[in-house]
Design goal:
There is one protein chain. The protein is α+β, with helices and mostly antiparallel strands. Helix content is 25%, strand content 24%. The protein has three helices and five strands; from the N terminus they run αββαβββα. It has helices at residues 7-20, 48-53, 118-131; strands at residues 26-32, 42-44, 59-63, 80-88, 97-105. A five-stranded mixed sheet has the order 2-1-5-4-3. A hairpin with an 8-residue loop joins β4 and β5. The chain starts with 6 loop residues before the first helix and ends in a 7-residue tail after the last helix.
């Protein structure tokens, strides 16, 4: 992840690492509108992160839900998810934008509420810091 050259490369590397290193169905990065969303990232409506995690929620580990459209072609194979709130403060932005780092497992118990979220939260912080290196083009 730390060798990513831009936002789309970061998303590609995250998805590849999730599949190759952790055996997951996929991973995605999503950013709330308004404003541009990098190629390879998912666009979320304004307020979507709060709707998914709660106003003060930081993570969700548990079953996937139908309204979650983050994994593209891999979505049908996703049975459980880990969602981590991010706040993207990219160069040139007036204020931080709400974002998500999402991981999808093909197993029902791949992510459960009883699990610790330290690893996915750590990876999300790396993604967040890396994404702040480049401006989000409009």
């Amino acid at each position: 992840l730390m060798e990513a050259r831009n936002h789309s490369d970061l998303a590609r590397r995250l998805d590849a690492a999730a599949q190759g290193r952790f055996g997951l169905a996929g991973a995605a990065i999503a950013l709330e509108k308004p404003g541009g969303v990098p190629f390879g990232w998912r666009a979320l409506d304004c307020g979507a992160v709060d709707n998914l995690l709660g106003e003060h929620g930081l993570t969700w580990l548990g079953p996937a839900f139908p309204e979650l459209d983050l994994f593209g072609a891999a979505a049908e194979g996703v049975a459980s998810v880990a969602l981590v709130r991010m706040s993207l403060n990219a160069p040139g932005d007036e204020a931080p934008r709400a974002a998500l780092c999402a991981f999808g497992s093909s197993e029902d118990d791949g992510f459960t509420p009883a699990m610790g979220c330290e690893l996915v939260a750590f990876v999300a912080r790396v993604v967040e810091r890396m994404a702040e290196r480049w401006p989000v083009l409009q």
